[in-house]
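G.,

No rush on this.
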Amino acid sequence: MNVHTSGKEPLYYRLYLSMIKDIQQGIYKENEKLPSKRAFADHLGVSQNTIDTAYQMLVTEGYIRAVPRSGFYVNPLDASLTVRQEPMNDISIVETAGVQDKYQFQLSTNSVDVGTFPYATWAKLSKEIMYSQPDLIYPGHQQGDLCLRQAIADYLHKYRSVHCTAAQIIVGAGIEYLIMLLNVLFDSNSMFAMENPGYPKVYQTITNCGRTVEPIDVTDTGIDIASLARSKADIVYVTPSHQFPTGVVMPIGKRLELLRWAYEKTNRYIIEDDYDSELKFTGKPIPSLQGIDNTGKVAYVGTFSRSIAPSVRIAYLVLPPTLLQKYQTLCSYYSPTVSRFEQHTLFQFIKGGHFERNINRNRNTYRKRRDAFVSALKSSPFANQITIMGANAGLHFLLYVQNGMSEPELIASAKAHGICLQGISPYYLKNSKPAESTVLLGFAHHTPEELQQAARLLASIWKT
């Protein structure tokens, strides 16, 4: 036996690990008697207590058995089921943090400006709650604490024209979790449909649940209702207030058409993701689809990850009455997925008016950045070779470039000059054919002056 005499772990623990390895490799045969504690201790030059502790750990885990007045024996093990000891350093770790540092300009859609997060306010509220409400360490209601759900209901009614009570709201750790939850509530044979291009994470979440997803093309007014009607889908996921990634806003006529499609069958439902609804730069935010649904066909989802910070993994789901009854029957035993301390910090953040002020401040900040970026692109030397789309809301827009370069060539040339950006291809589902030479330009990460520099650099790279 090879027992390392040096290391941070106690000697008995190193002996225990060595014996497990020897048993698994067959060095100690099944039903073989092990050396007595005294003999083993003399052989290794250690105390009998060390041997006894290692033996007792092996007995507890079932590797060996103690026979009174006889000794310790190796238990039979199925060789095909033994645990293989994998060295930890053989496991690769994919680390994505710090990728942004490689580029001078970060124009990806998931970038944000850390300076816009209200650190002082959030830290103050969080500290006060931690000290004043220690009972929040205990589990809360499975749908989320009532105070937060009521605050969300009030906000949605006031700003998004959503009609609901706190009882219909479920708080969860991210949109993906809530989509998985909805999957439990829909009929098992229901087929899903999604906008194409669309949100890949939601597509992957739904397919991971064993569902079939039919991509439906997006027109200049949103999802193609005629194609949806021809499909076999019963559930459709849409982003009508600001379609991702095209930025298209679904007009009222098409919203009514979509609701009419859902009304045709009892098992049809619409999942409305109110993506980026707060960040509309021209006119008032578009009222929600849920607000004009009078038969309970819309499940409404939203998140604070975009409006506050990406790491604030608090999202919410508003269930129509029929699905709420199913939830209470099937999921009432679920545990809440968001810390109550974080829930109450967010509640106080909303109650104190900080959330509304933060939204208004961010809207003004990002409007200035969008204006600077769009203006610089339109006045650049290659303005006649580009088309800007979907710039009225959200933190990115589309840029269609007509200079003879393909989408991969556009991305590669930009990255070679220190600009990180994304193409539209990854957002097309099931490898469907994307729009030609179109990229997404995010503007949240940089100041107006930096975005103007980025526009000039893109013009110098892409102008033909």
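When you get to it, here's the other one too:
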Amino acid sequence: MAEFKSGFGAIIGRTNVGKSTLINSLVGEKVAIMTNKPQTTRTAIRAIVNRPNSQIIFIDTPGIHKPKTKLGETMLETAFGSVTEVDFVLFLIEATSSGIGKGDRIILEKIKEAKKKTILVINKIDLIKKEKLLELISMYSREYNFSAVVPISALKNDKTNILLDEIEKLLKPGPAYYDIDEYTDQTMRQLAEEVIREKALKLLDDEVPHGLYVEIEKMESRLNKNDEEIYDIEATIYCLRNSHKGIIIGKNGEMLKRIGTYARQDLEKMLGTKINLKTWVKVRQDWQDQDSIVKKFKFNN
């Protein structure tokens, strides 16, 4: 029988290249929230893939961007900090790239510094012709000696098994760090906060999302009159301005109601239990620069 192997890997890339889509596709469960807005992931989320002879723990990191607040600086620190702490790196780029842009160049330099085993993952291959793909592979291969180059479509779940096979080759013999039925190290509270934020990101205008922060104030389990388990969850959505608060609540509370309904439906599927969700909106103008909040997004190994 083959020796059991395990290891930790960081998924790193620019904002909006599909890191969260990839991680959910590899795990087969919703672990990271997905939107079409950049910088959706703020923390280093651990996601676990259990295979017959291995356990792979992925760290989905915030996208590389130019920071403007303490939160932005912490997100960047989290992304780059994770590269030095793992066994391997997945460097995710877009197949539609015409060259090596500034953001990808910065990531490449960090990978070179860390000297980590790195797989170049080229996402969204369904959007380009084969000749373009070969050009991209050649361009990046001149920059670094990648352990493997794997073109995929994370959205269509295409070639992700090939990627897992390549990762398994890089692992060393080791134990299973998590139970085989676990797929994330996030607590139920963290999952709930992230799902509510995801729904708000998807439904709100462009000027609001990056000023949003969700905090679960209460999360308690009880039995209803039919002896079914139900979770009472109370959440506060913090925003930066009064004008944002009005947009989040919406006319007659309709927008907040929609956010809550979509979040509750998702959480009931994820947690396999009924949810009673109540949400409020408050203005906290400086939360992105408050140490007590920002420290929640730091990478902990």
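The domain at 5-173 is CATH 3.40.50.300 (Rossmann fold). Strands lie at 5-12, 45-51, 54-60, 88-94, 117-123, 148-151, 172-173, 213-223, 229-239, 274-283.

Enjoy the weekend,
O.
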